[in-house]
Amino acid sequence: MTILEVQNLKKIYTTRFGGNQVEALRNVTFSVEDGEYVAIMGESGSGKTTLLNILAALDKPTGGRIKLKGRDLSTVPDKEIAAFRRQNLGFVFQDFNLLDTLSIRDNIFLPLVLAGKKYPEMEQRMIPIAKSLGIYELLNKFPYEVSGGQKQRTAVARALITKPQLILADEPTGALDSRASDELLRQFTKINDTGQTILMVTHSVKAASNANRVLFIKDGEVFHQIYRGKLRNEELYQKISDTLTVLTTGGEHHV
Amino acid sequence: MFKGIYVKLAVSNLKKNRKSYIPYMITSILTVMMFYDIYMIAINTGIDDMPGDDSVRSVLGFGTMIVAIFACIFLFYTNNFLMKQRKKEIGLYNVLGMGKRNIAVMMLWESLFIGAGSIILGVLFGILMGKLIFLILYRILGYGTSFQYEISIQGITVTVLLFGTIFFVTLLFNLLQIRHTNPIELLHGGNVGEREPKTKVFMTILGLIMLVAGYVIANKVENPVTAITIFFIAVLLVVLGTYALFVAGSIFVLKLLRKNKKFYYHQRHFHSVSGMIYRMKQNAVGLANICILSTMVLVTVSTTVSLNMGMENIMGNRFPKEYMLTSYDGTDDAIRKIDNIVTEEINRYGLTRENAFRCQYVDVTAQKKDGKFIPESLGASFYPDKAIMEVAPVSYYNEMNGENVKLEDGEAVLFTVSEENYGKEELTLGDQTYRIKKETDTLAMAEKEAFPYMDQYYLFVKDESILNELIKKYGKGSTPSYVYGFDLEGSKENKTAAANAIQTRLTNESKISAAGELRDDFEKDFHSLYGSFLFLGLFLGSLFLMATVLIIYYKQISEGYEDQRRYQIMAKVGMSKKEIKKSINGQVRLVFFIPLCFAVIHVIAAFRLMDKILILMNLTNTNLFIACTAGTVLAFAVIYIVVFKITAREYYKIVTK
């Protein structure tokens, strides 16, 4: 079943007085199936972040359509958009975005509290997630007391606790050292194995080589995609590297 | 050329930080202005022509001192606030290769611009506003006469010196602070204090005890004379208690709330409670400042307004009769002369006496011991723990009250000033015990009081011989005193003329040392005195109000920047704009209305004490005081809410940027 459908997505930024127009997304079309683990790659300025913001309903497209589980995002009224985001999407950011005033536990609870859930239910949902992410012992600590990797795993727990349709990850390994990155990517694979759909934006080849499918964006369009098929991580890594070389030195569209 | 760059940097820095510096400049300008104005008025020669000029001058002198002290504290506090915000920026300059010496030069220019600008503009506005403030003062004092308004060179000099020093010292302090920190610390200057504050149970309890103790002593006071001493102790306790409770108590309560899972994990409370725990760490002192300042505004304005609105009540208490003559020579011969002169002069000016009373008496200051009164000296002196016994022949009692009581030796008629009667059968004064034949509830020459200054009795005895005996024993060589009081019917001019004539004849013709007080003559003095109190109350009230507004503004701005990131995260995680607005409103409202609530509680707790102090100033109309206080609180709350609304909007703009 298709979870996410993106059709002819277009985004044009206009400067305040309508002078210059910048085309961030020209024509992006792709779809994500239930249980998939997709990585989107591209250089800085290729439109990755714009795409993610639009998928997260933080920004509105100039043209085209996004369907999440068959529902057109543009039909969700503004009033409900925050609740919609809360219920259907989980986020993992490069800079963690944890609230420093909340303990690890409370940071994980945040979306549930916003949704008005009762405390016993929150606790019940949180415990298995925290255990599997290896942060159960840290629940009473505060963000400034734990390492970057632990912070990011807290953010993952926060994304998972709402049982979202889709997890959107924006450079999740960007602020982590290599060991913490490896650990986080292992967690992502584990989470994906339980059937959770993940869409990750990254320019780390290593991170992308963990995904099942890699999309390449260049100049606001999907330029190429690679399926893992039977490839091992190392092989996929090589293939991604090759593609990136072609991408940066120029080449034809393959989609 | 190289110097030019510092000036340029300083100017661009001030421009960049204008959101913080404009209010700072405005405050500085207003403070300079207010200091110049009050100082200029206090030293103005025009005051000499006013009735009661001495008291007006001393009240204004006191006000000048308060404004000066306040200016020091307040400008220092706001400067500190600004520096905290700019640490990062200064750290950046340091990292980019500016030495600390260069930074110092840059900051010197900044201070020069701010300081010189504030002083020049402040004095300028002071000169402009001075005329208006002068008019207000005269209007309050009740004199429409023209006056000499002059630009005071002395005033300008003192203002420039005072504020020049303040700005210089703050600059030194800033430089010292920068000198002692390294660039990395400066860079992170904005981010320190992320650690969760500890719960200070001991401090919470201490604060609570101090606050309660302050409230209790303020409400235990019975005697107006002791009220002033107690007032300062109570104020000190309450101030300290407020700071302790804001600093420690707030965090204690918030952590308790966090422990309550059902309350804490609720959409509306979750972010507020957790955010407040951090917010209180940095802002408790600021909020306590707001609270104390608000209390000061409320107390000064409400009491001074009461004093002015209760002028009639005050005059009635201070001068029970329109004309009162007190003579230290109260021998029968002197009394005859006084009575003659008074009657003659009153007739001459076509006036009539009403409600007259007269009495010959001896004042005895006595120590109360085992229910007995032990005389210590003759003459009334104020000791809150002693009693005054006014001993007089019963014939005057009969004359005053229109009765015909006959007393034997060892018998007396008694009147107590306190509402509670003496009630016993006997009264011992020295070695003489009197049987109380009658205790009267009314006496023409005195009134019962709910809270008298001190224990005061009127003891009417058989005749003058007993008075003479007391004099022989306790005050050799003195004579009884004599008091003659009455209301007058007739024109104002004639009353004054008669009073003057009586005074002149008594001194020149009869050589009797007596003083007559005509209420009208004193009314002007009292108007001046209490009018200058009101003026000062309003003046200081507006100064404190300005400070409160500014602190609130700064808090909102700085917290806005701090919360910006938090709200961005919340928005990303799935909080709608509406929810964010709600959460902000809730939190901000809590933060800013706690000081107001505490201020109102302080005022309520201080009410009885303030009422007592007003009694000391002859204002006994408690209802009037209640009305004035309620009015002041209401007016203040309205201003506070307006400020809150404006700054909350500013805060929202910053947070949702």
UniProtKB/TrEMBL annotation, chain A:
Q: Which CDD domains match?
A: ABC_MJ0796_LolCDE_FtsE
Q: Which SUPFAM superfamilies match?
A: P-loop containing nucleoside triphosphate hydrolases
Q: By its UniProt entry, which PROSITE patterns does this protein fall under?
A: ABC_TRANSPORTER_2
- Which domain of life does the UniProt lineage start with? Bacteria
Database matches in Gene3D superfamilies: P-loop containing nucleotide triphosphate hydrolases
May I ask which residue range the UniProt record assigns to the signal sequence?
Answer: none
List each copy of the ABC transporter domain by range.
Answer: 4-244
Q: Give the keywords, sorted.
A: ATP-binding, Nucleotide-binding, Transport
Similarity annotation: Belongs to the ABC transporter superfamily.
Please state what the protein is called: ABC transporter ATP-binding protein
Q: Which organism is it from?
A: Sellimonas caecigallum
TrEMBL record, chain B:
Q: Does the keyword Transmembrane helix apply?
A: yes
Q: Which domain of life is it from?
A: Bacteria
Keyword vocabulary terms for this entry = Cell membrane, Membrane, Transmembrane, Transmembrane helix, Transport
What topology does it adopt in the membrane?
Multi-pass membrane protein
Transmembrane annotation, as ranges = 21-39, 59-78, 108-141, 153-176, 201-218, 230-254, 284-307, 529-554, 590-610, 622-643
Mainly localized where? membrane
Q: Which PANTHER family does this entry report, sorted A to Z?
A: ABC TRANSPORTER PERMEASE, ABC TRANSPORTER PERMEASE-RELATED-RELATED
Q: What is this protein called?
A: ABC transporter permease
For this protein's source organism, the top of the classification is: Bacteria, Bacillati, Bacillota, Clostridia, Lachnospirales
